[in-house]
Amino acid sequence: MPKPKVLFICLGNSCRSIMAEALARHRCGDRWEAASAGVKPLGFVAPETLEVLAEMGVSLAGLHSKGLEEFDLTEYRLLINLSDHSGQGCIPTDGAVRVLKRPAPDPFGGGLEAYRRSRDAINQLIIRELCRGEKSGP
């Protein structure tokens, strides 16, 4: 049986959602297929994002900035919005897909400590929502 899919969304897909994608694969990739996207993708991953993930021994393989339009959102069981952006007009609100709004601190333009704080908050979210809280079965 295929694993359920989770899509993490933020504004630029350069920091928060990239961290969440990598951390979800690292923490509970045996239960979930994780991906990430931006409402307005920047087209690059912030070097600090990669640095703070590497500090934890998280794989950086395949991480790249991409937009929501690259995904068929109906394939996803869960969408997690990590931004303060409402997602209106971008993220389905018809109830067909479960959408959670879990804003995380945006470290973009900050120093490594800002990235670490964001990473740690997202890591706790992953553990709480995916590794413990969500069941992968129907």
List keywords for this structure.
alpha/beta; 4-stranded parallel sheet; 3 helices; 4 strands; 14% strand
Strand content: 5-15%
The tally of strands reads: 4
Helix-residue proportion: 25-40%
Q: How many helical elements?
A: 3
Q: Major beta sheet, specifics?
A: 4 strands, parallel
Distance between the termini: 11 Å
Please state the average pLDDT score.
90
**What class would the helix/strand composition place it in?**
alpha/beta
Order of SSEs: EHEHEEH
Strand order of the largest sheet: 2-1-3-4
Rough outline:
globular
- Uncertain stretches: 134-138
- Radius of gyration (CA) equals 14 Å
Task: Please provide a written account of the structure.
By secondary structure, the protein is an alpha/beta fold. The chain has a domain at 47-104 and 111-138. It has helices at 16-28, 47-55, 112-133, and strands at residues 5-10, 33-38, 78-81, 98-101. The chain has a 4-stranded parallel β-sheet, covered by helices on one side. Helix 1 links the parallel strand 1 and strand 2. Helix 1 crosses helix 3. The longest helix has 22 residues, at 112-133. The N and C termini lie close together (11 Å).
